[in-house]
Amino acid sequence: MTEVRRATTADAEVLGRLLWDFNTEFETETDDADVLVVRFARILELDEIVAVLAEDDSGAVGFALLSLRPAIWFDGPVAQLEELYVVPSLRAQGIGTQVLDLSRSLVRGLGSPEMHIGVDEVDVDTRRFYERHGFVTIEEGVDYRMLLYVGPTG
User: What value does the CA radius of gyration of the chain take, rounded to a whole number of Å?
Assistant: First the structure.
C-alpha cells in the first residue's frame, strides 16, 4: 500500500535521489544526487516550498516539488508544480494521482487557488495525465494555447 505525505527536511536525501533518478531517466542534465540533497535540505526550510513523498514497503516511490509565489491577479499565491515523479515500474497504478491530489490539497490549504505546470509538448503521456486531472492549455473563453517560455536571466 502506498502512503503519501508532506515531506520534511529529514526527507532531503531520498528526494535528492528521486530527482536524480527522474533526470537521468529522461536524459536531462543534472547535478549529482549529493548536490540535489543539499539543495533539498536548504529549500525545504522555506515556507514557500512544499514537497510530497510517496512511499510503500520498498521505500520511496514518487514525489512532487512545488513552489508558491505571490500573485497580483488574486489573493493567495500561485503554486508552481516544479516536479512530479513516480518510479517507472509503478506508473499507471494511481500513485501519481495520489501525489498530485495531496499536492493540490496542501497548496490550497496555504491559500493558493491556482497551480501552474510546465510540460514538454512531446510528452504526450504526461500531458494526458494532467488533462485528466483538469489542467488545460486553453483557458475557458479563449481560442489560443498558453505557452511557457524559458530563457537566461542575462
Answer: 16
Q: Say what the pLDDT of residue 72 is.
A: 92
CATH for 49: 3.40.630.30
Among residues 70, 139, 73, 61, which one has the least CA distance to residue 110? 70
Domains contained in the chain, number: 1
Cβ neighbors of 55 (< 8 A, separation 6 or more) are: 2, 3, 4, 5, 61
Q: What is the pLDDT of residues 81-131, one digit of tens each?
A: 999 999 999 899 999 999 999 999 999 999 999 999 999 888 899 999 999
Q: Is 103 exposed, middle or buried (0-12, 13-18, 19+ CB in 10 A)?
A: buried
State the pLDDT at residue 153. 76
Nearest C-alpha neighbor of 148 from the set 140, 64, 135, 36: 135
Asked if residue 100 belongs to a domain, the reply is yes
Bridge partners (DSSP) listed for residue 78: 69, 114
Question: Is 143 inside any structural domain?
Answer: no
With respect to residue 62, please indicate whether it lies within any of the assigned structural domains.
yes
How does pLDDT run across 140-150, given as a tens digit for each residue? 888 888 888 88
Instruction: Say how far apart CA 76 and CA 111 lie, in whole Å.
Output: 5
- Over range 48-54, report the average pLDDT: 98
- Tell me if 151 is assigned to some domain: no
